[in-house]
Write a structure and sequence with these properties.
The structure holds two protein chains of two kinds. Helix content of chain A is 0%, strand content 48%. Chain A is mainly β. In chain A, a hairpin with an 8-residue loop joins strand 9 and strand 10 (101-105). Helices cover 0% and strands 51% of the residues of chain B. Chain B contains no helices and twelve strands. The chains are: A mainly beta, B mainly beta.
């Protein structure tokens, strides 16, 4: 797992609801990333952060938000503006990934 | 723009036979190249990476990959496939001379490897 912990493993969201996915790392890596995985599309970058209190949009940032208040933590919020949030979400540092969170809209 | 292509959606091999999973890349500068494996509902597991040096990189679980700069390829290989190697494999690149998206990896769409007994 490379010292990256994602929680929860499974998450269900109702229409119009915001949900937050947790990502914690103990690797002392500066950079952290959030990717979204959909079948047949590989991994797409949502947001990334190279240093505490700084983060940048990736390729598909619309409908998502992040914060980086601590080096160890990089939570991702899926907002109600994200029209198709059902996917597998992966948090990563330089080369290592967490075990992922599967988000399903119910 | 940086990109990674995995031309085969699926590769089928018999157990004991050699396997190859193909990957080509496009970057404007010098690439860092990676291979990952993913089992169902799991995160990506790091297999190997090329940064510099010997073009043949050895990684976990008996896998290796060969960096070919002229063909911009980084194919994953294993001399003798196991049924347990059946999984989804991703190739990824990082352009170390570009600051686009920080140091984020760019991924191919993945190749499903199926090893039959």
């Amino acid at each position: 797992d490379g010292g990256i912990t994602q929680s929860p493993k499974y998450l269900f969201r109702k229409e119009g609801q915001n949900v937050t996915l947790s990502c914690e790392q103990n690797l002392n890596h500066d950079a952290m990333y959030w990717y979204r995985q959909d079948p047949g599309q590989g991994l797409r970058l949502i947001y990334y952060s190279q240093i505490v209190n700084d983060f940048q949009k990736g390729d598909i940032a619309e409908g998502y938000s992040v914060s980086r208040e601590k080096k160890e933590s990089f939570p991702l919020t899926v907002t109600s503006a994200q029209k198709n949030p059902t996917a597998f979400y992966l948090c990563a540092t330089e080369a290592f990934f967490g075990q992922g969170t599967r988000l399903t809209v119910v | 723009a940086q990109s990674v292509a995995q031309p085969e959606d699926q590769v089928n091999v018999a157990e004991g036979n050699p396997l190859t999973v193909k990957c080509t890349y496009s970057v404007s500068g010098n690439p860092y190249l990676f291979w990952y494996v993913q089992y169902p509902n799991r995160g990506l597991q790091f297999l190997l990476k090329y940064i510099t040096g010997d073009n043949l990189v050895k990684g976990s679980y008996g896998f290796e990959a060969e960096f070919n700069k002229s063909q911009t390829s980084f194919h994953l290989k294993k001399p003798s496939a196991l049924v347990s190697d059946s999984a989804l494999y991703f190739c990824a690149v990082r352009d170390i001379t570009s600051n686009q998206a920080g140091t984020a990896l760019i991924f191919g769409k993945g190749t499903t490897l199926s090893v039959s007994s």
